[in-house]
Write a structure and sequence with these properties.
The protein has about 500 residues and is of the alpha+beta class. It has 17 helices and ten strands. About 50% of the residues lie in helices and about 10% in strands. A hairpin with a 2-residue loop joins strand 6 and strand 7. Helix 5 crosses helix 11, helix 8 runs antiparallel to helix 12 and helix 14 crosses helix 17. It is globular, with a radius of gyration of 24 Å. The N and C termini lie far apart (about 70 Å).
């Protein structure tokens, strides 16, 4: 038998098996897939918009083939509820591509773990120990420190005579808050000095994050076509080196905390301390502790900065909403002090601004894939075991059947009707819902609201000189999280007495 016949026979058998599967099941409609590559060449870079367009043509549940893997995408409220509530248990597993498998040590963390005893255990640690109101309140000084540090650096920029009337890059300041806040919460360390100089560990941390993104993006097509993988072998050495580097840094920080705890006799509230003191109680391996810490960093670093940048872009485009939020802040907080998290219950409009920004611009517009652990039916269609199901959160939040004038930025809609954002109302799902809802949702909401409150209370915001509000580019960058394609540039004008722009530094 000629050697080339064997691979041809294997491919033929696989294609015939896939054809049999498609004929056996009543799959959701969708664009016609090509042999081997499926719909990969048809998908536009900004995937959630592409899937929303296809939903307009084929209906709110569609089949999209990533190579030989079936991906089902749902795009309205009813189907989101069916996926995340009615069939939550059958769809609670995770699809891990090769990079996710490597980064999570094959699901030893929370984000990439399949649903089972390990997932239930680490989820319990998160909901009963880490993200409880008492701990979030104890860590509040860190959040307020970082937000006031942001205000001080914006103030220093815009009161510098050289910058008079010049715009600033908003993302730069938001990113600093997100970076310092999450490293302090997770690792109990501020890698950056007051002068903005990042120490050695901080540089190593940033290099690890950047390298992880590069490695994750390097696999491309071969991820979706298993029989092509021999042509695109996994860079085992590069991944092993990356993981060793990540483990080395995390273990060094864990060791520092263990020594400090032995010295002082008491544990701090940071997540690293909490996990180390809970290690025995919950039988957590070192890999799981490292995985959980990096989950928090992955989930919490970019998302808050992204959410606030979109909210600020909307407020600059809608000066009426900006003014209304500022009037509320002036009435409740006044001009003699700065806003704190304890003011939130008295600032309903500010909370509505945060909600409306998260509705129109969810930082993770496509929920991470839920993998079917058994055959399941959704909307009368078959979802075979092993398929991936995605909820298009972005499309659900713009569903005209669920929202009046869905494309309009109108925070008032949440004053007229209270809509839960923590996964109980399936019209608004920035943090997911069901068994895999984000355990850190409240922490994210608090930080986004705090950043917005300070930015609006301390400054008036207008577009760069020569740019009209409706000329601000509101398109998204491709990727798992949605950065603005054109980073927001805006002019900040102080509006409070100058003594209120000082950072409130805390050492904890």
């Amino acid at each position: 038998m000629p050697p080339y016949l064997l691979p041809i026979s294997i491919i033929t058998i696989l294609l015939l098996y896939k054809l049999y599967q498609r004929m056996r099941f009543k799959l959701p409609p969708g664009p016609r897939p090509l042999p081997i590559v499926g719909n990969l060449y048809d998908i536009k870079p900004v995937r959630f918009r592409c899937f929303a367009e296809w939903a307009q043509a084929y209906g709110p549940i569609i089949s999209v083939w990533f190579g030989s893997t079936l991906n089902v995408i749902v795009s309205n409220t009813e189907l989101a509820k069916e996926v995340l509530k009615q069939h939550d248990q059958q769809l609670a597993d995770r699809h891990r591509n090769r990079s996710a498998a490597k980064f999570s040590k094959d699901g030893k963390d929370l984000i990439w773990a399949d649903y089972g005893p390990h997932y239930v255990k680490v989820r319990k640690v998160c909901t009963l120990e880490l993200f409880v109101p008492k701990r979030l309140e104890a860590l509040r000084p860190i959040r307020e420190d970082e937000v006031t540090a942001m205000v001080e650096s914006i103030f220093n920029h815009c009161t510098n005579p050289e910058n008079k009337g010049k715009s600033l890059l908003v993302k730069k300041y938001l990113g600093a808050v997100a970076f310092n806040n999450i490293t302090r919460l997770a690792f109990g360390k501020r890698f950056e000095t007051a002068e903005g100089v990042i120490d050695e560990q901080g540089l190593e941390f940033k290099a690890i994050v950047a390298n992880g993104l590069k490695l994750g993006a390097s696999l491309a097509m071969a991820e979706h076509i298993p029989w092509l993988r021999w042509m695109f072998p996994l860079e085992e050495q590069a991944f092993a080196k990356h993981e060793a580097r990540k483990d080395r840094l995390t273990r060094a920080i864990m060791e520092e905390h263990t020594l400090a705890r032995e010295k002082s006799g008491g544990a701090k509230q940071h997540f690293v301390d909490a996990l180390l003191t809970l290690q025995e109680k919950y039988d957590l391996s070192e890999d799981t502790i490292i995985g959980l810490l990096w989950d928090m960093i992955t989930a919490g670093m970019d998302t808050t900065a992204i959410s606030v940048e979109w909210a600020m872009a909307e407020l600059i485009k809608n000066p009426r909403a900006q003014q209304k939020a500022q009037e509320e802040l002036d009435r409740v907080v006044g001009f003699e002090r700065v806003v704190t998290e304890s003011d939130f219950p008295s600032l309903p409009y500010l909370q509505c601004v945060a909600k409306e920004a998260l509705r129109l611009h969810p930082p993770t517009p496509l929920m991470l894939p839920h993998r079917a652990n058994s055959n399941v039916k959704i909307a009368g269609y078959d979802i075979p075991k092993g398929s991936n199901v995605h909820v298009n959160v972005w499309a659900v939040a713009r569903d005209p059947a669920a929202w009046k004038n869905p494309l309009e930025f109108r925070p008032e809609r949440f004053l007229e009707e209270d809509v839960d954002m923590n996964g109980h109302d399936f019209r608004l799902l920035p943090f997911g819902a069901g068994r895999r809802v984000c355990p850190g949702a409240q922490l994210g909401i608090n930080l986004v609201t705090s950043m917005l409150g300070h930015l609006l209370h301390h400054f008036d915001w207008t577009p760069s000189e020569g740019v009209k509000p409706d000329e601000i580019d509101m398109s998204e960058n491709p990727g798992l999280v949605t950065y603005m394609r054109t980073s927001l540039q805006a002019v900040a004008t102080p509006r409070l007495p100058s003594h209120l722009y000082k950072r409130v530094a805390v050492d904890m």
